[in-house]
Amino acid sequence: MDEPSEQLLARYQAGDQAAADEIFRRYVGRLTVFARARLAPRVARRVDPEDVVLSAYRSFFIRARDGRLSFTRSGDLWRVLVAMTLNKVRRQVARHEAEKRAIRREEDILAEICEPHHRGPTPEHALAAADELEQIMAALPPLKRRILELRLLDYEISEIAADIGRSERTVRRMLDDLQEFLKRRLLDG
After folding, report:
1. Which of 14, 25, 85, 118 has the least CB density, counted as fewest CB within 10 Å?
2. Over the range 69-88, which residues count as b (16 or more CB within 10 Å of their CB) and which as e?
3. Which residues, at least 6 apart from 44, have a Cβ–Cβ distance to it below 8 Å?
4. Per-residue DSSP letter, 71
5. Distance of CA 77 to the CA centre of its chain
6. Cα dihedral 61→62→67→73 (10° resolution)
7. What's the 3-state SS for 135-151?
8. pLDDT at 102
9. Model pTM greater than 0.90?
């Protein structure tokens, strides 16, 4: 049977690191699922739920160490961690939807850039795009360059994974990294 949260908190406040480890282990998985469920998909592309949970834990442990927390009922620890996680989620959403970082604004810019034009690019635009692609490829490490090449050739994720000898999850993660890299490059340019 799990040790009551009041005792865990008291042990942590007395300097017992094993109590902190137990508090973390006991709830980290459920808090991560909770945070992930509360992040809208457009924000979740920019905010890692694990980072939100770690931030909530950091705040919790600081307050607990300073004696600003006390529990009287079973379940108080869970309720406090959920409340802190929810506040962190809300702050991240507000931060990423603020005018300067407006996700919708970025998506509108990307949609405008990627919108197909009926008459096709001019020779100057095609040359500029080719130069930009060449610079992007040169800036990438070999593995990411190969993934981008294959994706531009319309390969499926499973085909790319087989070609480079990595898992599909790794390919997806690297494609997400490439997408963020390209967004930053487009928005900075």
Report:
1. 118
2. bebeeeebbeebbbebbbeb
3. 36
4. -
5. 26
6. -30
7. HHHHHCCHHHHHHHHHH
8. 53
9. no
CA distance 76 to 97: 32
d(CA 161, CA 177): 16
| Residue 26, SS3 per DSSP | helix
Q: Which tokens go with 132?
A: 């930009």
Both tokens of residue 106?
Answer: 């970025």
Please write the tens of the pLDDT for every residue from 34-67.
Answer: 898 888 777 777 788 999 999 999 999 999 988 8
Q: Distance between CA 101 and CA 179 in Å, rounded? A: 17
Q: Which residue has the tokens 């009041």?
A: 6
Other beta carbons less than 10 A from residue 130's beta carbon: 10
At a CB cut-off of 8 Å and minimum separation 6, what does 95 contact?
101
Phi-psi region of 117 (alpha: psi -120 to 50; beta: other; left: phi over 0): beta
The token pair at 48 is 């890692």
Chain CA centroid to CA 24, Å:
20
Q: What's the rounded Cα separation, in Å, for the pair 13 and 23?
A: 12
For residue 137, what pLDDT is reported? 86
